[in-house]
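Quick one, T. Sequence first:
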Amino acid sequence: MQYKRILLKLSGESLQGEQKYGISMEQLRSYAVQIKQATELGVQIGIVIGGGNIFRGLQGAKRGFDRVKGDQMGMLATIINSLGLQAVLADEGVKCKVLTSIRMEPIGEYYSKDKALEYLNAGYVVIIGGGTSNPYFSTDTASALRGIEIEADGFFKGTRVDGIYTADPEKDPTATKFDTITFDEVYTRNLKIMDMTAFTLCKENGLNIIVFDMDTEGNLMKVLQGENIGTLVHK
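Structure tokens:
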């Protein structure tokens, strides 16, 4: 298998499931089952979860919040989601640790690369909450940064869509999907697949990105086993 260690980015908004807010336990359970299956293959998994199902800093800024305070609220939202996933993974029998980029003992241990690698090598799933701990940076950027730090073999961006298209497939029925695409072509085509800070971090550090539909149960295993689903972004 080509992936020994991955960074899995999960969408906070996807955790809503069919709800308009909060955490769908059915969706959380689906993610936990897929992650458990991946660990049974021997894959080491670091996870970053967004917080958009609870609070997004940019939304707060549009409503009059100070952007820094809004982003800090969003960071706390990612930690709530991290704890929820940890609880369900534990219920599935998966060893899991939550590390936070902000000191929050005893809620989670303070993140460091060494601590994350220690747990990954010991067979734990490691969930890293709190974003980068800095305002003005998205959880995509936090995911790219953590993926590089833990020396992941790939950045798995689990979304509600099944890959990267020439245009938004929900708005343009003629949009076609890429099986693979280079970083440079994404720039040239001006495709909005993630925060560009995150994207550039991945490109400059040689971390390939796999965009796939995580909401279809079983897809994580299919990607790990080399099936041609999703889109691979490479140099």
